[in-house]
Write a structure and sequence with these properties.
The structure is a single chain. With 475 residues, this protein is of the alpha/beta class. The protein has three domains: 220 residues, FAD/NAD(P)-binding domain (3-Layer(bba) Sandwich); 110 residues, FAD/NAD(P)-binding domain (3-Layer(bba) Sandwich); 113 residues, Enolase-like, domain 1, CATH 3.30.390. The strands form five sheets. Strands 1-2-3-4-5 form a five-stranded mixed barrel. Strands 7-14-8-9-10 form a five-stranded parallel β-sheet. The protein has a five-stranded antiparallel β-sheet with strand order 17-18-21-20-19, sandwiched between helices. Strand 9, helix 7 and strand 10 form a beta-alpha-beta unit. Helix 1 runs parallel beside helix 8. The longest helix is centred in the first third of the chain and has 25 residues. Bound molecules: flavin-adenine dinucleotide (FAD) and nicotinamide-adenine-dinucleotide. Nicotinamide-adenine-dinucleotide binds next to helix 6 and strand 17.
Length: 475
């Protein structure tokens, strides 16, 4: 192996591996170093997303949703299945198979793009040299014209509820349970809290989620948050807002959590506790002396809007830099950086990053929430359409939720689209394209949508913004 590259990417997650692939496609000589190690000791590219995040969580969300539907909905369709039993080992095996297939797939993609995959640890040194420590301990100094840092993030720890890997676990631990905990506690009612809480609730756990804030899903449009909370409560997710945890102590029999809320001091006894209070950038052993790369007060690598650090030809992308910690945001940044390294013009539109929460009903949005638009002072109009009035949603027996469109009153510019309901994460794609093209609600109104589809709900919500909805009374 040559020791000199056009580009070295440190980190092979969803920000780093697309950067490496795109740079390879552009004819550059690229290496990607990744040190992800699984519980079984195996190494794999793909980072948090493929190994312990997006993909395994969605595999379990899908399996557990099928269990729920078999138990609660099949009879409505006239399907009798008797009592449903769950084989957790088989469910986990399916999940592991998906993860393995996807992570190994990256090596195939690297091969096609002529990217050199290096398993082990990478550390940036001065003058764009990179110290590479292979898994057998061999150390080599590589050099590159450009270095892209994509070291990702790690779960934030809570000193009052320290991880022990058995009773008190992070999100990765909660994806690996070998049996359904009878009582599951979760600290943090954020995205992970509600997604993983839903998985284990559907599989039979009594789930209690303790959230420090008084507001549920504060980053979402509050009309969606309200609808979500109503549905989650109905599903038996016990979400306690304004709950401040003071301690969590593990014993052989489980975990005792002490917290206080508006009602006073409280005790929660659970068998397993998941701490999901956010993630923080991971830069341990990433930067040697004299690199010139700096971290901000929260530990993120400092970059400009093009993900360039103040050091010439050193870039950083994904969870280790500012912005939402989302796989698709990292991917766009990785691709943008590769394009810019190759001398092309490229930008990331940070105003059109979609968010999706893969619960049932699913929650998705792009652009500004109504609260944000209100705060901006711009005059706006809102159109909503409930899935209850959608023929397709009724056929799917998934009528909870609605589509909500927010647009400027003066020039009809689309400002935000918010969906809670079936396949919201798929529906939001159309809204992303609309925002990317600076569409108006009129553009959505004039676009023909197939019948009967869920996407008609978005069409009708756009029509409702001008009181022109056909399939629901205009208010
Ligand atoms: P990471 O995926 O963390 O990858 C960084 C990689 O770099 C890792 O493999 C790490 O081992 C390696 N590395 C770090 N330092 C070094 C070094 N010095 N040398 C070599 N290798 C190094 N996001 C979504 O968009 N959709 C979802 O549905 C979603 N679901 C999630 C579910 C869970 C349970 C979790 C925890 C996260 C989820 N996320 C989701 C967030 C998503 O996983 C992250 O935003 C994404 O993985 C960030 O990508 P990244 O490449 O920046 O970092
Ligand atoms: P989060 O920021 O979404 O939620 C953390 C929650 O914990 C917040 O509601 C916060 O108020 C609460 N909290 C913080 N400290 C607390 C305390 N001491 N006691 C009680 N509650 C406390 O973070 P997360 O759910 O851990 O997820 C981490 C990251 O992973 C997020 O940035 C998210 O974007 C990403 N992620 C994305 C998806 C997705 O896109 N579907 C899924 C999972 C994770």
């Amino acid at each position: 192996m040559s020791d000199t590259f056009d580009v070295i990417v440190i980190g092979g997650g969803p920000a780093g591996y697309p950067a490496a692939i795109r740079a390879g496609q552009l004819g550059l000589k690229v290496a990607c170093i990744d040190g992800w190690k699984n519980y079984d000791g195996s190494y794999a590219f793909g980072g948090t997303c493929l190994n312990a995040g997006c993909i395994p969580s969605k595999a379990l969300l899908e399996s557990s949703e099928l269990v729920h539907r078999a138990e609660a909905e099949f009879a409505t369709h006239g399907i009798k299945v008797g009592s449903v039993t769950v084989d957790i080992a088989a469910m986990q095996k399916r999940k592991a198979g998906i993860v393995k297939g996807m992570t190994q797939g990256i090596l195939g993609l690297f091969k096609a793009a002529k990217v050199t995959a290096l398993t082990g640890h990478g550390r940036l040194l001065a003058d764009r040299r990179v110290e590479y420590t292979a898994v057998d301990g061999t150390v080599k100094t590589l050099s590159a014209t450009h270095v892209v840092l994509a070291s990702g993030s790690e779960p934030a720890a809570l000193p009052s509820a320290p991880f022990d890997g058995v009773h008190i676990v992070d999100s990765w631990g909660a994806l690996e349970f070998a049996a359904v905990p009878k009582r599951l506690g979760v600290i943090g009612a954020g995205v992970i809290g509600v997604e993983l809480g839903s998985v284990w609730r559907r599989l039979g756990s009594e789930v209690t989620i303790l959230e420090a804030m008084d507001t549920f899903l504060p980053m979402a449009d509050q009309a969606l948050a309200k609808e979500a909370l109503k549905n989650f409560n109905k599903q038996g997710l016990n979400i306690r807002l304004g709950a401040k945890v003071s301690s969590a102590e593990a014993s052989k029999s489980g975990v005792t959590v002490l917290y206080h809320d508006a009602a006073g001091e409280q005790t929660l006894e659970v068998d397993r506790l998941v701490v999901a209070i956010g993630r923080r950038p991971y830069t341990k052993d990433l930067l040697g002396d004299g690199t010139g790369v700096s971290l901000d007060a929260r530990g993120f690598i400092v970059v400009d809007e093009h993900c360039h650090t103040p050091v010439e030809n050193v870039w950083a992308v994904g969870d280790c830099v500012r912005g939402p910690m989302l796989a698709h945001k990292g991917k766009e940044e990785g691709v943008m950086v590769a394009e810019r390294i190759a001398g092309h013009h490229a930008e990331v539109n940070y105003r059109a990053i979609p968010s999706v929460i893969y619960t049932a009903p699913e929650i998705a949005w792009v652009g500004q929430t109504e609260e944000e638009v209100k705060k901006s002072g711009r005059a706006y109009k809102v159109g909503s359409f409930p899935f209850l009035a959608s023929g397709r949603a009724r056929a799917m027996e998934s009528t909870a939720g609605f589509c909500k469109v927010i647009a400027a009153t003066d020039d009809d510019e689309l400002l935000g689209v918010h969906v809670i309901g079936p396949m919201a994460g798929e529906l939001i794609g159309e809204a992303c394209l609309a925002l990317e093209y600076s569409a108006s609600t009129e553009d959505l109104q004039l676009t023909m949508h197939a019948h009967p589809t869920l996407s008609e709900a978005l069409h009708e919500a756009a029509l409702a913004a001008d009181k022109k909805a056909i399939d629901f009374p205009n208010r």
